[in-house]
Amino acid sequence: MTALRPFLATYGTALAGLAVVVVFALLKPVFLTPANFAIILKETAFLGILSLGFTLALVTAELDLSIAEVASLSAVVTGALVHAGFGATVAVAAGLSTGLVCGAANGLVVTRLRVPSLIATLGMAAIAKGLGFMITQGVAFVGRWPVSFTGLARGSIFGLSNLAWWLAGTAAACWVLLDWTRIGAHLRATGEAEEAARLAGVATGRMKRAGLTMCGLGAGLTGVLLAASLSSAAPNMAGDHFLYAIAAVLLGMTMFEPGRPNVPGTLVAAFSLKALGNGLVLVGAAYYVQDIVLGLVIVASVALSAGALGRAAFVEKLNFKRPS
């Protein structure tokens, strides 16, 4: 039993996710059909990319609560340019740049102005939402958009959806960055022991800016792909992904590297949450049951990873003596 405890601590949540899949597969055989699995994978792609960005910010002990609004603004900027007849390359570049600029602004406000990320990113969320409604005037951009743009999300390569490839590429890039590069080591050191890292020569302010900037870029990519997939762009289109993204990262902290934000954990958690929601719909559960279950997942995941989350959300937020 003693030898089993470390295994369960590391992989217990992942096994619970697998159990959820098995249960729904037994209750509803359609759950594991290729068509339904494609739906789950599509939803996981949007959530996974957004969550991976949040993971990079949380690694540095910072929170980005603007991810959904920034993703929506990026979609709106992209959609506005496509709707106006600009080429797909220009529109996509503008959407990604929007996320990048918003993330960089968050990083500068946090490290230069010494505003806690909890407050800074809430402010950014309000700004991004306002800009989205200003650009659209409250009316979503819709229409028959060029295949060169929509193909980013709707196409497939070797029989696998482009969205799955985008998710795989993003996850691989984040994993290599965090686990195989010096920058990744510095990002982790900044989040786990900022003062010690600073004394060791790590540019902790720069690392925090990098984490928040990459988080914004992840939100930008999510927005671009949402617009390409739906052929529409609205200022609140990514709103439903916000709590799921936070839940995916927190739940991911309970597996593989307990107590630490990590790429494999975030991916498994994102898939588990979307599989759970899909399964509940198939068994006929009321729409509000998903919200109740999501709330329970968030509370449970925070309880299981309270130490790391406490450092990220409270201790570091109260430390206003940040390096420039």
Automatic annotation (TrEMBL):
- Alphabetized Pfam families for the sequence: BPD_transp_2
Q: Could you identify this protein by its name?
A: ABC transporter permease
* UniProt keyword annotations, A-Z: Cell inner membrane, Cell membrane, Membrane, Transmembrane, Transmembrane helix, Transport
Recorded GO cellular component terms are: plasma membrane
Segments traversing the membrane = 6-27, 39-61, 81-105, 117-136, 156-178, 210-230, 266-287, 293-314
Question: Is the keyword Transmembrane helix in the record?
Answer: yes
Q: Does the keyword Transit peptide apply?
A: no
